[in-house]
Structures are given as C-alpha cells and as structure tokens.
Write a structure and sequence with these properties.
Strand content: 15-25%
Protein name: Aminotransferase
Bound molecules: 4'-deoxy-4'-aminopyridoxal-5'-phosphate
Oligomer: single chain
Radius of gyration: 21 Å
CATH architecture of the largest domain: 3-Layer(aba) Sandwich
CATH class of the largest domain: Alpha Beta
Number of helices: 13
Number of domains: 2
CATH superfamily of the largest domain: Type I PLP-dependent aspartate aminotransferase-like (Major domain)
Family: Belongs to the class-III pyridoxal-phosphate-dependent aminotransferase family.
Helix content: 25-40%
CATH topology of the largest domain: Aspartate Aminotransferase, domain 2
Organism: Cryobacterium gelidum
C-alpha cells in the first residue's frame, strides 16, 4: 500500500486529499462496510453518497443491462429520462415541477445560480458563512468555510454577499429560538445592499447546516429569510445536495424540517449512489425564463444510464424502507451519542437527525473551545477499531456521521462502543 500511495501522490493533484496519513487500501464495499486489501472490514460512517449501500446488486444489474441496451444523451428521446424526471417532480414539493439533469452537486448549484440571476435580472447572491456548495467558479464563490480556505472571507467576488452563519449551537446567536436575531442582522445586510444600489437575485443555504456537522437551523429561520428575500424580488435556493433524499429520517427534504418551500432545489450525491448524477428542480416559469436565453445541454446529464441508476436508487430506497431505517437507526445512534455526552466532557454537543449526525468535540464546555487535534486523534483511533469517520466544521472538530442509510443497529452499536472506548482511553 505504501508504494501505491506514493504513486498516487506523484500523479494525482495533492490538493485532492485522502483521509488518514496512512490510509487503508480499500478493495471492496458491501452495504455499509468497506473492506481493505488485508481483509479488514470497517463500518463506513462517512459515505453520504452511497445512500443505498456499497455494491448493491440491483444497481450493478441496472447499469449492466442499460449499458448493453442503450446509452446516449438527452437530445435523443427515450423513456428513462421521462420516467426519472417525472419521479423527481413528484417527490418535489408543489409548485416545483420542472427538472434539469446534470452530473454533480457543483453543476446543480452553478445552474441554480444562473437560473436565479436570469429570472430576477438582479446582481447579488446571499450565502451563509461557513457553507460549502461546490468547486466551480460560481459554487466556490459562495463557499466560505475558513477550514477549507483561510482567506475565504476576504476573497469573495463582488456578486456574493455573505450573511451570518445561523449556527444555533456555536454561532453568534445560540439556541433554537435565536432566529429573530439572525433575521434582524439580515435586515441590516439588506439595507446596506440597497444603499449600495445592489439587488438580491437569490439566497442559497443548506436547509440543515451540513458543513458545520448537521446542525439544525434555528426555528423559523428559513421562513423568515425566504420572506425577506422574496419581498425584494429574490429567489430562494435550497442546497439539498447533502441532506435530502431521506437521510434526515423523518424528512425526505431538508426544507420540510423548516416548513418552507424553496423556488429552486439542488440535489446530487445520494441520487446516483456514487454514479455522477445531479439535478435542479424548480418552477416552470423560472425554467422558461432561462430558456429565453438559449438552450441548455449537458452531454452526460440525464443519459439513459444515469436515469436508470437514478430510478433504481429510488426503487431500492422504497423497497428496503431506507428512509424509515435512517429514522429508526438514527434515533438509536443519536441517543447513544448523547449518553456518551453525559459521561465525557469532550463531547460538547450532539447534532442532527436521522443518519445525519454530528458530535462536537470541545476541550472546554463553558466556552466551547474546539478540540481540533483530539478530533483528528479520535478518528485515527476509530480506524484501528474498524470505523471510518472524519471531522468537519470550521474548526475540524465535529465528527460528521453520515453513513449509508442501510446502517444496521448492530453496526451503530459497534461504532458507539468503539467511540466509548476511545473517549475512555483519552480521558484517563
Ligand atoms: N453542495 C453541498 C451542500 C455539498 O455538500 C456538496 C459536496 N460536498 C456540493 C454542493 C458539491 O457537490 P459535488 O461534490 O457533487 O460537486
């Protein structure tokens, strides 16, 4: 493995990092397990893309049979595209009824921004601090996590305006009742923008604060923001790339948790279970206005293969009750993590819902000092105990727990025992 890692580091751009200083070489995946070249298996607590699990035979068979039958692009007319877009439109809340198909979350976000700028004719996009929305010029411009780029806040282009991160646990205002304070700050932002002659094209945010580790937004936050943005003629974009598709257990869409309907939804990751799929779902009038400026085409977006895989993922989720499993196993896991929080001072907070959970590690519970180095050490120790998990957030001190939705109670317990063991070792 060392020689192979060296070859990887020689040819693959170093900025595309790998987990762990000495990573296991992964050879196989099965359900929520990954198996290395020594036959060691790990519970995969991090893979939010492989929603229905690794190595799913139904996906392998769908891909094989579609490849041998037909794969082409969306300028041709074929049934898979119609069935998949109808299915997505059915899942989306009213009045969102029109679908664009692309290949990734970044592309979906980029397209959503273009739709909003075109529809409104306005010039400014509001995004929350500490968020991540993708890597293209536009998606990167609205991503401001200082953990990823320490100069993020100073280097945003003119068309981006960052608003306070609505983090109800460690943000400027705390608690689920803190929305009015964040909204009052937003009023100030909007006034400043208007004073500068700037107009709001869109507000974009994840409906659950993913990059911070799955922190729920303050109650009523999105409803308040959407109302203010819409009253200025802007559109509201929900970046559901990470948190949707049943991962939250009780909710298929993250926006359900906040009781709002956006104007534009972006999705990806879970849609293809690892096959590159992304989509934008919006209202017909927004899509029509975009069409006035010329056609849109993505060579592989919406291919028969992609649509077939997308349909199969949704079939598996339904047939195997994976959203329900996310709710049940997620509740069990969260309760276990909260119990660890009662015993170990290192655990400052437990976030999230369903199988999108976060464990904030702090060295001081009073002032919430991030335990960044300890978080990294815990992840290394968990690897030795057969669990793969990694830290997130601006301080890289939140264990981000987002396994395949087929996670079993037994594997959740394996993870809880391993974490208990590591926390015990670290605090004695
Ligand atoms: N939006 C969010 C919220 C994301 O988490 C990500 C990926 N981490 C993206 C957009 C970009 O998606 P992709 O990596 O598929 O381009």
């Amino acid at each position: 493995p060392a020689a192979l890692l060296q070859r990887r580091d020689t040819v693959f751009a170093r900025v595309q990092e790998h987990y762990y200083a000495a990573p296991p070489q992964i050879e196989r995946g099965w359900k929520h397990h990954l198996i290395d070249t020594h036959g060691q298996s790990y519970v995969d607590m991090i893979n939010n893309v492989t929603t229905v699990g690794h190595g799913h035979p139904r996906i392998a068979e769908a891909a094989r049979s579609q490849w041998s039958l037909l794969n082409t692009n969306s300028r041709f007319h074929y049934e898979e595209l119609v069935r998949f877009t109808e299915r997505l439109a059915e899942l989306a809340p009213d009045p969102l009824d029109t679908v664009f198909l692309v290949n990734s979350g970044t592309e979906a976000v980029d397209l959503a921004l273009r739709l909003a700028l075109t529809h409104t004719g306005h010039d400014t996009v509001l995004a929350v601090r500490e968020a991540y929305h993708g890597w293209s010029m536009a998606a990167d411009a609205i991503s401001s996590s200082v953990a990823d780029n320490p100069r993020a806040l100073e280097t945003r282009p003119d068309w981006v305006h960052l608003v306070e991160a609505p983090n109800a646990v460690r943000g400027k205002y705390r608690g689920l009742q803190s929305a009015p304070h964040y909204l009052s700050d937003l009023d100030g932002d909007l006034q400043t923008l208007a004073g500068d002659g700037r107009t709001v094209a869109a507000f974009i945010a994840e409906p659950v604060f993913g990059n911070a580790g799955g922190v729920l937004l303050p109650d009523g936050y999105l409803a308040g923001v959407y109302e203010k943005v819409r009253s200025r003629g802007g559109l509201c974009i929900a970046d559901e790339v990470q948190v949707s598709y049943g991962r939250l257990g009780q909710y298929f869409w993250g926006t359900e948790q906040q009781n709002v309907v956006p104007d534009i939804i972006t999705i990806a990751k879970a849609m293809g279970n690892g096959h590159p799929l992304g989509a934008v779902i919006t209202r017909r009038d927004i899509a029509e206005r975009f069409a006035d400026d010329g056609p849109f085409f993505s060579s592989a977006g919406g291919s028969p293969l992609s649509c077939r895989i997308g349909l199969t993922v949704l079939d598996i989720m339904r047939d195997e009750g994976l959203q329900q499993n996310a709710e049940a196993v997620g509740r069990h896991l969260k309760r276990g993590l909260e119990r660890l929080g009662e015993r170990f001072d290192l655990v400052g907070a437990v976030y999230g819902t369903g199988l999108y959970l976060g464990v904030e590690l702090v060295s001081d519970r009073e002032d919430f000092t991030p335990a960044t180095a300890v978080a990294a050490m815990i992840c290394d120790e968990l690897l030795l105990r057969g669990c793969i998990v990694q830290p997130t957030g601006d301080f890289k001190n939140v264990l981000k727990i987002k396994p395949p939705l087929c996670l079993s109670v037994a594997s959740a317990d394996h993870f809880l025992l391993a974490l208990e063991d590591v926390l015990g070792v670290l605090t004695t």
